[in-house]
Structures are given as structure tokens and as C-alpha cells.
Amino acid sequence: MTLENVAPGGAASGSDTDHSRVAIVTGGSRGIGRETASRLAADGFAVVVGYAGNRQQAEAAVKEITAAGGRAVAVQADVGDEEAVAGLFAAAESEFGGVDVVVHAAGRLYLSPVAEIDFDQLDAAHRTNIRGTFVVARQAARTIRDGGAIINFSTSVVGLAFPGYGAYSASKGAVEALTLILAREMRGKDVTVNAVAPGPTATDLFLEGKDEETIARLAAQPPLERLGAPADIANVVAFLASPGGHWINGQVIRANGGII
Description:
By secondary structure, this protein is an alpha/beta fold. It contains 9 helices and 8 strands.
């Protein structure tokens, strides 16, 4: 586990004692995860930005949050590694006093027709998307404080069945199944468990490898006639993480602008 700690004014924050709410965001260094980390910080959360390997991007996310007056640390952790994820949660405890919200936004996407699938890529995707979700969910279920929220990430492709998305969609179908079951297993703990399933969203992960024609076609599909923005998805996550969203539990929210 690697931890980079940046607090307002550039000073180390140390242990926090004001008992404000604390969020862990995996995949928090880029895309939807980064936007979510910034939004939760703006809502008053202390944020642990989990990242896999790009320390520079993670540090930039933390600096962005602290420059706006928030509190954040960046912690490197492979979500498929139980010890690394335990370290991620331990950092939240030592830096900010506990964990109230876990947003598991880390994911891996490979596109391929089933007939041409590379099984090494399939295994890598499933390690991050399926095993990683189980590893994070297990640690969250054991440590999250009462009144908290666990928010996983699926994809609207599970329902839309776009060609080429077989491996990704299958892995996210597993995430949806886990989410619904974990919500029921958390009975009596006042913790909600939901999944957000974005549609086409303008992130580097989504745009990579697509030509302009493909992007324009996908953008035209929702009745709102545009791609989603990371902020659109972060807003949904922020609501689920808030007291106002606490009655929503055991659901998959398809945040896709109305694609059917």
C-alpha cells in the first residue's frame, strides 16, 4: 500500500477527530471515479482516493480536492488484492477515523467479439471487475459504519447488449447480482447497497479506440441526445451516499439518459 497525504495548505492532516463522514472511492484518480471523489469532497466528505498505478493522476485528484478546501489522501491498492484493500480501509481509519461510504468505481474494459476473445484479457477483466468487487465488498461489509452506503458500478450495457461488450457486460452482471444479495445480507446494520449503471459516458475509458462516427451514433441514442458526462454519474452517486438517498437500497440505477 502506498499513501500520499495532502491536506489544505499543503500540511499533513494526521488523524482526524471531528467525526465527519468519510468516503473511499476506488478508481478515484480518473474519469467517473475522480469526478465522484471531487463531488463527495464538495459535499463535506473526507475522501480516500484509491488508485491502481497512476500516482501522478491520483495526486492531482487529491490536490484538486484540497485546493477547494476539502480533505483527501491518495492510496495505491490493487482491488483484487485482499491485503492491499485492507490497507486502503486501514488508511481511511488512521487518517480520518473510519469509513461511511464506499464507492467502488475501479474497472477494466476490453472490447472483443466472443468468437475472438483473448482469455488473458478476460481473466484480467474478471479479476478487477468481479474479484475486485468481492474483495472491496467484503472489506466494506466488515468495517463500514452504521448509516453508511456501499455503491458499486455496473453498466447499462448489461441490458443494452451491445456487440463486442460480452466480457465486460458479463463481469458487470456479476456485480449486479452481488449488489442485490449484499443489500439483503446487510440487514440490521442500516447500510444501503446499490449499483450505478452508466450508459455511454465521455470518459477516456469509453472514448478510447472509438472513431467519431461511433461516438456520434452512441451520443444520439438517448432521448437527451448526448453522451453522459462524469458529473452526471457523480451526481447519482452523491445522492445515494447522502441521507436523502438512504431509502434506496438493493437497486441498480441505470443512469443513461433514457436509452432503452
